[in-house]
Amino acid sequence: MSDEKPHDHQLEHAISNHDIKNPDVLEIEAKEALATEHALTTAQAVRAYPMAIFWCLMVSMCVIMEGYDTILIGNFYAYPAFAKKYGQYIDESGQHQLSAAWQAGLGNSSGVGCFFGVLINGFLVNKFGQKRVLLASLVVLSCFLFIVFFAPNIGVLAAGELLCGLPWGVFASSAPAYASEVLPMSLRIYLTSYTNMCFIIGQLIAAGTLAGLVHRTDEWGYRIPFAIQWVWPAILIPVLSFSPESPWHLVRKGRFEEAEHSLRRLVRKSAGIDVTATLATIVHTNNLEVELSAGTSYMDCFRGVERRRTIIAMVAFAGQVLSGSSFAYNSTYFFQQVGLTTDQTYNLNVGGTGMALVGTLINWFFLMPYVGRRRIYLWGMFTMSLILFIIGILNVKTHDSTIGMTQAVLTLAWTFVFQLSAGQLGWALPAEMGSTRLRQKTVCLARNAYYIISVIAGVLQPYFMNPAQWNLKGYTGFIWGGTAFATFVWCFFFLPETKGRTFEELDWLFAKRTPTRKFRTTEVDVFDHEQRNTLAVATPHTV
């Protein structure tokens, strides 16, 4: 192989003619692109990839609707107008209440829909690509929103929530995967975790809407919040019609010229980024994964070294629920049960969501640029378990009038820590863990692990809190504190560091079965052919 760098048109010609069996040309260009990506600072990447950032922001905005609904339904239980319309009984204080069974059923309806939406999305994106699937999902959601808006009873409302969950599942699994595929390494963590920011934005909009309408006694008190969800499809459908498709998806389909065109739309022309070299890296990485991976099906996610990657992604996402989010993020009902007034309850809810936003920004600017993903996630989980245990301990003194407010403030502190750690990294880590050929399905499986744990938690949480059931109040902190601590222990032994690693380097580290604690320090040479051949033999397709 000559040391002289071939002209760009050689690679362009090779790729345009679907000749991906030219390892010499591809390797030289891929080496150049890999060196460039490692040298690219965050500030340089922002200047070089403004359109990639814009399209990631637009795709992630789809998640606002799921975040909005999560807060909406969970906090409608203590909402007077909603409880009067859909409640089953009146408690001893004269307040309308939904039974624990209907709280669990309604609260989990969208989660069940999301589960199937995510599962289907893994097949749809592989066949049609991110863009067409997202646009179709937005159209479908616009139709399903009519069901929840006009629901005459709680059964129809639950059915509407389930159907709306189908497209929400698509958005939740597509947004981080899309961001990870159109951005350079230095921006990847910010825009994959930005999906979480959109979740918070949706929650903040919902919290503000509920706080503003809580005193309405007519049906518009709960119908207006449902109607607001039509705003996002109206904005996003025309915008996303012009979005570029993921170049990784196009390469996997052998559409190399379209992939190059997509890359040129994502980078600023004057930035000096060699798009041909970037395309060579994608092709080179895809070729490596063809050698090391069994394929692109869901079953392949659990074969060979992919099993480890998939399990890490699944636990990282499920950790968002195991950390106690079902308790802390449906806190208005908890506030009501510990004796706070309706105004205090909904004002605290807005404040908590605001703190979540602040926590996200602090993480972006002061933690993620300097601290590894593993350390942030690990110690965030430990801190959240500690806060939840304190909430449980405080519940011993139920006769103290200040205890309820103290517990409420601690839930806000939990929210802040959550967004410093698992809240954002729960979205980002699954998008980094899976191999590129299995990334969409890995994210889908991880998100579905989240939904499964979320549904279980959603069934149990109303029974923990409902005064006609177990009535645990603050003692619920002991339960979720225990699951958060168990997740902390798991992370200590199994969650590797991915900061500063390209997708090809991560393929290499996992293929070599690198121990968890050595991911950060192990030197990687993805162009070592002797090692590459050894790995290909060590990871057969039928493991």
UniProtKB/TrEMBL annotation:
Q: Which domain of life is it from?
A: Eukaryota
Q: Cellular location of this protein?
A: Membrane
Please report the record's description of how this protein sits within the membrane.
Multi-pass membrane protein
Catalyzed chemical reaction(s): myo-inositol(out) + H(+)(out) = myo-inositol(in) + H(+)(in)
Among InterPro entries, the record links this protein to: MFS_dom (IPR020846), MFS_sugar_transport-like (IPR005828), MFS_Sugar_Transporters (IPR050360), MFS_trans_sf (IPR036259), Sugar/inositol_transpt (IPR003663), Sugar_transporter_CS (IPR005829)
What Gene3D superfamilies does this protein map onto?
Answer: MFS general substrate transporter like domains (1.20.1250.20)
Question: What stretch or stretches form a coiled coil here?
Answer: none
What residues does the Major facilitator superfamily (MFS) profile domain cover?
A: 55-499
Predominant location category: membrane
GO MF entries: carbohydrate:proton symporter activity
Q: Name one GO cellular component term.
A: membrane
The alphabetized UniProt keywords are:
Membrane, Transmembrane, Transmembrane helix, Transport
Annotated membrane-spanning segments are 52-80, 100-121, 133-151, 191-214, 311-329, 349-367, 376-396, 408-429, 449-465, 477-495
Please name the NCBIfam families in this protein's record.
SP
UniProt similarity note: Belongs to the major facilitator superfamily. Sugar transporter (TC 2.A.1.1) family.
Which protein is depicted? Major facilitator superfamily (MFS) profile domain-containing protein
Name its species: Apiotrichum porosum
